C-alpha cells in the first residue's frame, strides 16, 4: 500500500512552510506557522491511515471498503484542539501587544535572569563554602541561638500566661 | 487495627477545626487517639506474648500481590506501645507548650497526629511496600514539622536537609526492599524474614539489597555519615524533637534493623557494615554532645550516639544482643523524650536553654529537676533505672560473643561510648539545674501542674520499668528468642546485677564518666569550641551547591531565551535523529509509488493548499496572510472529504471559519502590516531548517503505510460501533464510546484553553456572562424600540441593516441545524463537535451583526457554566455507567415504544455528546466574550478617554 504523491508532496510543502513561519520573530507569523503545521499534521495522519475509502457509516458501504475511522476520530479531535490553541495564542498576542506594543518575540526575561544568577551565584557559592568550611558546627549552634532570639515573636510563642 | 490507623488520619484531618474550636486544648482531645491505641495494644499483649500475633489483611493492589497487611507481634507491640504512649504524652504536653493563640497551630496539630498514625502503621505493617509508604510518610511529616516555623531560614534549611537525606535513604531502601522481596518471592515481611532465616542461598543481588536497606536505616536513624541532619532538625518545636527525633521516627531505622536481623544478619556485609557505622556514630555523637552549650543540642548529639549504640546491638543478630537492644529502645524512648520535654519546659519558662545562662533552676523547680535527673540518670546508666539494666545487658551481650571475634574490641569501644554518655549526662544535669558561680540566677516562671506532667511520667516510668524489669522482660524476650543463641548462658534482664565483668565495666564507665564530666562542668571548659567540623555536612552542602549550579548551567545552556533558538534545536534533533534512521534504514527503499493521485479533485485541492501556504510566507498584510491560511484550511477540508472522511471535513470547514473570525477579532487591534525584520541570511538559515523537516515528514508519510505489517487496530471498529455503541457513524461512536477517554482529555484541554484565553484578557475576574442589552448605555435616543436585533443600537453609522436582517433570519436555522447535527451524529455525519461549532458560528453571526450586547442577548449565561456543564455531562456519563455496573464510559441503549413517536431508541452516549456540544459552544462563547466583546469595550473606553480631554 502506498499513498498518492500529491498528498505526500503537500505534506512536505506544508511542513516546510510551517517550520519556516514558526521560526519567525513575529508572533502573528508564529501563529500562522502553527495553523499550517496543524493542517500538515492532520493530512499526514489521514494519509498514514491508508487508502481513501467510503465514509465510515455502517450500512453505507461494505466494511472492507471503508476508510479508517480511528485516524478520522484522532484528526477530528486535533482540529478542535487547534482551535483552542489558536484562541490561546491569540490571547497571548493580544496581551503582548497591550503590554509592549510589540508583535515580536522578545528574549525571555526568566531565562536571562537564570544566566545572571549563574554569573553572580558562582561567586556567592565560593564565599559561602569558605565560611562553612571554617566553623561548621558552631554554625548550627548560632542558628539555634538565633532561633531563641526570634522565638519570642515567632509563630509559636511561649505560653501566654508566662508573660 | 486498621481502624486505629484510620482514626489517626481522621483525627489529623479534624485537627485544624478542633484547634479553631478549642484552641490549644484541642491537643488534649487529639491525645485520646494514640492513647486509645496504647490501651488496645495493652489488651492484646497476653495473646501476643503467648505467641499468637494479631493480624489483619486488606487487599490493596492484588495484581502486584500487595496487601495492607498489619501484624502485631511482640516486637511490633513493644515499639508501637512506645509510639502511642509517648505520642499521647507529647500531644498532652503540647496543650501547655504552645501559646494559646499561636499561629499555624491547627496545621501543626494535624501533621503531628498524622505522623503518629504513619509511625504506628509503619511499625504494624507486615508488607514491605506498605512499610515503605509509611516510612516516606513519616519523612514528609517530619519535613513539615521541622519546617513548622517557615519564616525562619534555619528552620526551612533544616527541614529540607532532613527531607533530602531521609528521602534519599528511603528511596535507596525501596530498591533494597524490591530486591529482597523479589529474591524471597513474597512482599509479606514476616514471610520474607522467615525465608532468609531458612537455609536459602544468598545470591549477589541479596547482598546489594541488604546494603540498600541498611542505607535506608542509616539515614533514618542518623548514623554516620548521615548523622548531621538530626542536630539541624532541632530547629523544630521541642515536642517534635521529643517525639520524632527521640522516641519515634529515628527509631524506625532501629526497628527495621531489629525486624530484619533474624533473617539477614548472616548475609555479608550486614555485620561489618552495621558494626563500623554504628560504633563510629556512638563515639562521635558522644564527643559532640560534650561540646554543646544548647541543652537541646546536647540531647540531639546524645541521641545520635545512642542510636549508634542501639543499632550496634540490634544488628548483631544474636539473642542476647537483641534483648539488650530492644530494652535499650524502650529505655531510650522514655528517658530521651523525658529530657527533651524537660528542656522544652525550661526553654519556655526560663527563656533560654543555653546551659551557660541557666543557674539555680534545681531549687526553683524541684519537680522538673527530679524528672530531668531521673531521665539523665537513666541515660547515664545508674541503678536502679531501666537505662542501667539495659546497659548492663548490653555489656553482657558482648561478653556473650555478639559479633563473634570482634566482640572484645567492640566492647572496649562501647565502654568508651558509655563513658562519654555518663559525661554528657553529668554535663546536662549540671548545666540545666545546678547553681553556677558567676551566673545570674535564672528568671523562672512556674509552669503550672500540667506542663511538666509528661516529662515526670516518662522519668518515673524509667524508674518503675527499671525496678520492675522482670515484668517488662516477657514482652521483650519473645522477639529476642527468634534469634540464634550465641552463648550457653542466656542473658536475663535484672535490676540487681550479678557481680561480674559487666558490672565492673559499668562502674568503670560511671567513674570515668564523672571524672570526664565534672571537669567539663567548670566555666572554663564550657567555653571550649565544638569539635573540629565533621566533613559530612560540608560535603552535603557542597553537593547541593554543585547540583544547583549544574542545573543553572544546564538551564542557561538550553533555555537561551529565544523561542526560535529552542525550536531550531528541536527541529534539528528531529531531522538528525529520525531523519538518519530513515535514510539508513531499508524502509525508504521499499516504498513503491504507484499513483499520482486518487482523483483530479485531490490534485486541485493539494495545489490550492500548497499555493496558499507558500503565499502565506510572503504576505505582509496581516489580515491577508490570515485569509490565505484560511484558504489552506478549506483546501484541507476538501482533501478530507475526498479521503472518505465527511465528519472530519465538516469539522475542518467549521473550525476554519471560526478560526478566521477569531483571528480577525484580535488582529484588528494590531498594525496593518507585519514588521519584517529579517535579513536574507536569517531567511536562508530558517529555510535550512525548514526544508529538511519538510522532506523528513514526506519521507515519514511515505514510509508510514509501507511499514505497516499488522492489521489496523480499527479494523473491527465498524462492527463494534454498531454492536456495542449502537451507532452507524463509526467516527462518532469512536469519539463518544470506543475512545471516549481521548475525548474526555480533549474536552479538558479545551476548557483549559478557554479559561486561559479569558484569564489573559480579563486578568482579574473571568466569570460572568456577556453584558445584556439593558446594560447598554443609550447612545442615541431609542426611537426604534423593535429593531431586527434586540441589542443592535450602536451608532447608526456602524449598523449594517442587511447583516441584521440576515442574522435574524439565519440564526434560528443555524441553531436547529446544530441540534440536528448533535442528535443525528450517532448515525450520520455530524455529532457534538460539528453541532457545537455550528451553534458557535451562529453566535459569531449574532455578535458580528449586533455587537457585544447582542452576544449577551443570544446567550445570557456564563461561558464557564457551559464549559463546566459540558464536562459534567461527559464525566457524568462515565461515572453513571460505572455506578450502573458497566465500565467507565460504556454505552447503554434504552429502547421503548412511545405512543405517537413509535419505537424510540436512546443511547446514553448521547449525553456524552451533549457534553462535547456544550464545551465547544462554551469555548466559542468564551473566546467571543474575551477577544470580541471585552476588546470592544476597551477600545471604546480608550476612544472616549481620548475624547474627553479634547
UniProtKB/TrEMBL annotation, chain A:
<feature type="transmembrane region" description="Helical">
    <location>
        <begin position="69"/>
        <end position="93"/>
    </location>
</feature>
<feature type="compositionally biased region" description="Acidic residues">
    <location>
        <begin position="121"/>
        <end position="130"/>
    </location>
</feature>
<dbReference type="InterPro" id="IPR039428">
    <property type="entry name" value="NUOK/Mnh_C1-like"/>
</dbReference>
<comment type="similarity">
    <text>Belongs to the CPA3 antiporters (TC 2.A.63) subunit C family.</text>
</comment>
<feature type="transmembrane region" description="Helical">
    <location>
        <begin position="6"/>
        <end position="23"/>
    </location>
</feature>
<feature type="compositionally biased region" description="Acidic residues">
    <location>
        <begin position="138"/>
        <end position="155"/>
    </location>
</feature>
<dbReference type="InterPro" id="IPR050601">
    <property type="entry name" value="CPA3_antiporter_subunitC"/>
</dbReference>
<keyword id="KW-1003">Cell membrane</keyword>
<keyword id="KW-0472">Membrane</keyword>
<feature type="transmembrane region" description="Helical">
    <location>
        <begin position="30"/>
        <end position="49"/>
    </location>
</feature>
<protein>
    <submittedName>
        <fullName>Na(+)/H(+) antiporter subunit C</fullName>
    </submittedName>
</protein>
<keyword id="KW-0812">Transmembrane</keyword>
<feature type="region of interest" description="Disordered">
    <location>
        <begin position="108"/>
        <end position="163"/>
    </location>
</feature>
<keyword id="KW-1133">Transmembrane helix</keyword>
<dbReference type="Pfam" id="PF00420">
    <property type="entry name" value="Oxidored_q2"/>
</dbReference>
<feature type="compositionally biased region" description="Basic and acidic residues">
    <location>
        <begin position="108"/>
        <end position="120"/>
    </location>
</feature>
UniProtKB/TrEMBL annotation, chain B:
<feature type="transmembrane region" description="Helical">
    <location>
        <begin position="105"/>
        <end position="123"/>
    </location>
</feature>
<feature type="transmembrane region" description="Helical">
    <location>
        <begin position="270"/>
        <end position="290"/>
    </location>
</feature>
<feature type="domain" description="Na+/H+ antiporter MnhB subunit-related protein">
    <location>
        <begin position="803"/>
        <end position="925"/>
    </location>
</feature>
<dbReference type="InterPro" id="IPR001750">
    <property type="entry name" value="ND/Mrp_TM"/>
</dbReference>
<dbReference type="InterPro" id="IPR050616">
    <property type="entry name" value="CPA3_Na-H_Antiporter_A"/>
</dbReference>
<feature type="domain" description="MrpA C-terminal/MbhE">
    <location>
        <begin position="682"/>
        <end position="765"/>
    </location>
</feature>
<feature type="transmembrane region" description="Helical">
    <location>
        <begin position="192"/>
        <end position="216"/>
    </location>
</feature>
<dbReference type="Pfam" id="PF00662">
    <property type="entry name" value="Proton_antipo_N"/>
</dbReference>
<feature type="transmembrane region" description="Helical">
    <location>
        <begin position="75"/>
        <end position="93"/>
    </location>
</feature>
<dbReference type="Pfam" id="PF20501">
    <property type="entry name" value="MbhE"/>
</dbReference>
<feature type="transmembrane region" description="Helical">
    <location>
        <begin position="599"/>
        <end position="616"/>
    </location>
</feature>
<keyword id="KW-0406">Ion transport</keyword>
<dbReference type="Pfam" id="PF04039">
    <property type="entry name" value="MnhB"/>
</dbReference>
<feature type="transmembrane region" description="Helical">
    <location>
        <begin position="649"/>
        <end position="667"/>
    </location>
</feature>
<feature type="domain" description="NADH-Ubiquinone oxidoreductase (complex I) chain 5 N-terminal">
    <location>
        <begin position="61"/>
        <end position="108"/>
    </location>
</feature>
<keyword id="KW-0812">Transmembrane</keyword>
<feature type="transmembrane region" description="Helical">
    <location>
        <begin position="829"/>
        <end position="849"/>
    </location>
</feature>
<keyword id="KW-0472">Membrane</keyword>
<dbReference type="InterPro" id="IPR007182">
    <property type="entry name" value="MnhB"/>
</dbReference>
<feature type="transmembrane region" description="Helical">
    <location>
        <begin position="906"/>
        <end position="928"/>
    </location>
</feature>
<feature type="transmembrane region" description="Helical">
    <location>
        <begin position="687"/>
        <end position="707"/>
    </location>
</feature>
<feature type="transmembrane region" description="Helical">
    <location>
        <begin position="158"/>
        <end position="180"/>
    </location>
</feature>
Amino acid at each position: 500500500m502506498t499513498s498518492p504523491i500529491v498528498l505526500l508532496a503537500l505534506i512536505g510543502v506544508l511542513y516546510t512552510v510551517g517550520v519556516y513561519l514558526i521560526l519567525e520573530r513575529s508572533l502573528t507569523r508564529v501563529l500562522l506557522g502553527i495553523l499550517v503545521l496543524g493542517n500538515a499534521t492532520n493530512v499526514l495522519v489521514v494519509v498514514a491511515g491508508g487508502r481513501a475509502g467510503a465514509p465510515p457509516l455502517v450500512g453505507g458501504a461494505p466494511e472492507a471498503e471503508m476508510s479508517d475511522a480511528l485516524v478520522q476520530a484522532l484528526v477530528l479531535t486535533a482540529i478542535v484542539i487547534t482551535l483552542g490553541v489558536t484562541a490561546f495564542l491569540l490571547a497571548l498576542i493580544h496581551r503582548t501587544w497591550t503590554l509592549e506594543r510589540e508583535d515580536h518575540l522578545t528574549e525571555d526575561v526568566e531565562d536571562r535572569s537564570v544566566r545572571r544568577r549563574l554569573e553572580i551565584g558562582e561567586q556567592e557559592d565560593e564565599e559561602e563554602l569558605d565560611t562553612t568550611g571554617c566553623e561548621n558546627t558552631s554554625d548550627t549552634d548560632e542558628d539555634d541561638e538565633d532561633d531563641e532570639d526570634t522565638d519570642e515573636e515567632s509563630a509559636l510563642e511561649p505560653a501566654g500566661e508566662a508573660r | 487495627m486498621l481502624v486505629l490507623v484510620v482514626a489517626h488520619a481522621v483525627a489529623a484531618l479534624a485537627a485544624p477545626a478542633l484547634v479553631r474550636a478549642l484552641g490549644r486544648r484541642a491537643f488534649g482531645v487529639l491525645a485520646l487517639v494514640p492513647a486509645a491505641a496504647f490501651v488496645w495494644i495493652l489488651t492484646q499483649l497476653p495473646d501476643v506474648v503467648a505467641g499468637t500475633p494479631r493480624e489483619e489483611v486488606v487487599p490493596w493492589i492484588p495484581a502486584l500481590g500487595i496487601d495492607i497487611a498489619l501484624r502485631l507481634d511482640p516486637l511490633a507491640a513493644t515499639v508501637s506501645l512506645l509510639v502511642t504512649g509517648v505520642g499521647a504524652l507529647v500531644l498532652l504536653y503540647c496543650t501547655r507548650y504552645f501559646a494559646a493563640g499561636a499561629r499555624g497551630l491547627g496545621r501543626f496539630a494535624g501533621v503531628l497526629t498524622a505522623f503518629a498514625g504513619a509511625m504506628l502503621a509503619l511499625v504494624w505493617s507486615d508488607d514491605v511496600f506498605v512499610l515503605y509508604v509509611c516510612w516516606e510518610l513519616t519523612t514528609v511529616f517530619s519535613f513539615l514539622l521541622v519546617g513548622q516555623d517557615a519564616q525562619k531560614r534555619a528552620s526551612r534549611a533544616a527541614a529540607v536537609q532532613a527531607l533530602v537525606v531521609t528521602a534519599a535513604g528511603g528511596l535507596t531502601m525501596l530498591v533494597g526492599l524490591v530486591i529482597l522481596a523479589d529474591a524471597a518471592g513474597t512482599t509479606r515481611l514476616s514471610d520474607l524474614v522467615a525465608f532468609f532465616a531458612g537455609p536459602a542461598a544468598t545470591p549477589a543481588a541479596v547482598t546489594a539489597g541488604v546494603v540498600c536497606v541498611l542505607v535506608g536505616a542509616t539515614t533514618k536513624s542518623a548514623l554516620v555519615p548521615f548523622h548531621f541532619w538530626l542536630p539541624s532538625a532541632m530547629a523544630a518545636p521541642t515536642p517534635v524533637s521529643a517525639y520524632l527525633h527521640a522516641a519515634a521516627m529515628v527509631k524506625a531505622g532501629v526497628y527495621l534493623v531489629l525486624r530484619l536481623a533474624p533473617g539477614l544478619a548472616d548475609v555479608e556485609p550486614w555485620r561489618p557494615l552495621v558494626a563500623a557505622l554504628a560504633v563510629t556514630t556512638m563515639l562521635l555523637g558522644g564527643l559532640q554532645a560534650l561540646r554543646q552549650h544548647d541543652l537541646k543540642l546536647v540531647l540531639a548529639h546524645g541521641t545520635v550516639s545512642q542510636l549508634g549504640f542501639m543499632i550496634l546491638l540490634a544488628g548483631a543478630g544474636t539473642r542476647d544482643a537483641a534483648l539488650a537492644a530492644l530494652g535499650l529502645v524502650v529505655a531510650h524512648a522514655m528517658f530521651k523524650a523525658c529530657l527533651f520535654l524537660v528542656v522544652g519546659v525550661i526553654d519556655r519558662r526560663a527563656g533560654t536553654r543555653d546551659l551557660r545562662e541557666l543557674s539555680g533552676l534545681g531549687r526553683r523547680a524541684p519537680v522538673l529537676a527530679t524528672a530531668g535527673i531521673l531521665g539523665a540518670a537513666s541515660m547515664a546508666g545508674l541503678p536502679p533505672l531501666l537505662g542501667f539494666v539495659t546497659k548492663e545487658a548490653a555489656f553482657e551481650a558482648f561478653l556473650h560473643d555478639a559479633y563473634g571475634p570482634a566482640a572484645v574490641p567492640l566492647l572496649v569501644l562501647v565502654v568508651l561510648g558509655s563513658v562519654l554518655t555518663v559525661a554528657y549526662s553529668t554535663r546536662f544535669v549540671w548545666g540545666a539545674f545546678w547553681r553556677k558561680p558567676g551566673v545570674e540566677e535564672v528568671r523562672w516562671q512556674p509552669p503550672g501542674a500540667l506542663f511538666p506532667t509528661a516529662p515526670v511520667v516518662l522519668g518515673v516510668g524509667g524508674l518503675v520499668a527499671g525496678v520492675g524489669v522482670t515484668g517488662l522482660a516477657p514482652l521483650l524476650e519473645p522477639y529476642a528468642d527468634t534469634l540464634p543463641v550465641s552463648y550457653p548462658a542466656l542473658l536475663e534482664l535484672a535490676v540487681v546485677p550479678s557481680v561480674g565483668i559487666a558490672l565492673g565495666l559499668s562502674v568503670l564507665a560511671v567513674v570515668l564518666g564523672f571524672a570526664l564530666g565534672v571537669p567539663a562542668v567548670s566555666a572554663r571548659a564550657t567555653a571550649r569550641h565544638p569539635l573540629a567540623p565533621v566533613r559530612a555536612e560540608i560535603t552535603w552542602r557542597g553537593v547541593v551547591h554543585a547540583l544547583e549550579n549544574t542545573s543553572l548551567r544546564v538551564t542557561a545552556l538550553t533555555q537561551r531565551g529565544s523561542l526560535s533558538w529552542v525550536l531550531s534545536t528541536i527541529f534539528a534533533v528531529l531531522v538528525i535523529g529520525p531523519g538518519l534512521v530513515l535514510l539508513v534504514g531499508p524502509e525508504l527503499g521499499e516504498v513503491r509509488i504507484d499513483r499520482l493521485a486518487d482523483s483530479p479533485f485531490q490534485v486541485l485541492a493539494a495545489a490550492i493548499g500548497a499555493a496558499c501556504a507558500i503565499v502565506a510566507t510572503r504576505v505582509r498584510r496581516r489580515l491577508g496572510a490570515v485569509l490565505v491560511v484560511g484558504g489552506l484550511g478549506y483546501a484541507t477540508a476538501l482533501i478530507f472529504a475526498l479521503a472518505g472522511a465527511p465528519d472530519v471535513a465538516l469539522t475542518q470547514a467549521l473550525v476554519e471559519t471560526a478560526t478566521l473570525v477569531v483571528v480577525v477579532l484580535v488582529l484588528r487591534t494590531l498594525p496593518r502590516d507585519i514588521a519584517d525584520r529579517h535579513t536574507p541570511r536569517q531567511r536562508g538559515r530558517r529555510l535550512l531548517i525548514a526544508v529538511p523537516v519538510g522532506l523528513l515528514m514526506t519521507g515519514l508519510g511515505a514510509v508510514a503505510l509501507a511499514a505497516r505489517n499488522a492489521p489496523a487496530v480499527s479494523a473491527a471498529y465498524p462492527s463494534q460501533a454498531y454492536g456495542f455503541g449502537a451507532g452507524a457513524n463509526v467516527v462518532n461512536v469512536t469519539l463518544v464510546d470506543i475512545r471516549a477517554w481521548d475525548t474526555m482529555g480533549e474536552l479538558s484541554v479545551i476548557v483549559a484553553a478557554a479559561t486561559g484565553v479569558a484569564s489573559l484578557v480579563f486578568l482579574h475576574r473571568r466569570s460572568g456572562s456577556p453584558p445584556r442589552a439593558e446594560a447598554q448605555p443609550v447612545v442615541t435616543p431609542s426611537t426604534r424600540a423593535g429593531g431586527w436585533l434586540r441589542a443592535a443600537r450602536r451608532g447608526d453609522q456602524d449598523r449594517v441593516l442587511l447583516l441584521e436582517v440576515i442574522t435574524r433570519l439565519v440564526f434560528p436555522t443555524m441553531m436547529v441545524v446544530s441540534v440536528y447535527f448533535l442528535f443525528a451524529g450517532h448515525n450520520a455525519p455530524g455529532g457534538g463537535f460539528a453541532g457545537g461549532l455550528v451553534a458557535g458560528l451562529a453566535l459569531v453571526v449574532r455578535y458580528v451583526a449586533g455587537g457585544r450586547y447582542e452576544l449577551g442577548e443570544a446567550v445570557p449565561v456564563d461561558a464557564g457554566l457551559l464549559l463546566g456543564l459540558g464536562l459534567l455531562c461527559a464525566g457524568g456519563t462515565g461515572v453513571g455507567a460505572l455506578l450502573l455496573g458497566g465500565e467507565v464510559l460504556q454505552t447503554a441503549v434504552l429502547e421503548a415504544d412511545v405512543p405517537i413517536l413509535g419505537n424510540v431508541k436512546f443511547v446514553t452516549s448521547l449525553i456524552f455528546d451533549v457534553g462535547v456540544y456544550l464545551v465547544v459552544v462554551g469555548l466559542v462563547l468564551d473566546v467571543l466574550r474575551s477577544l470580541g466583546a471585552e476588546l470592544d469595550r476597551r477600545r471604546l473606553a480608550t476612544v472616549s478617554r481620548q475624547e474627553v480631554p479634547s
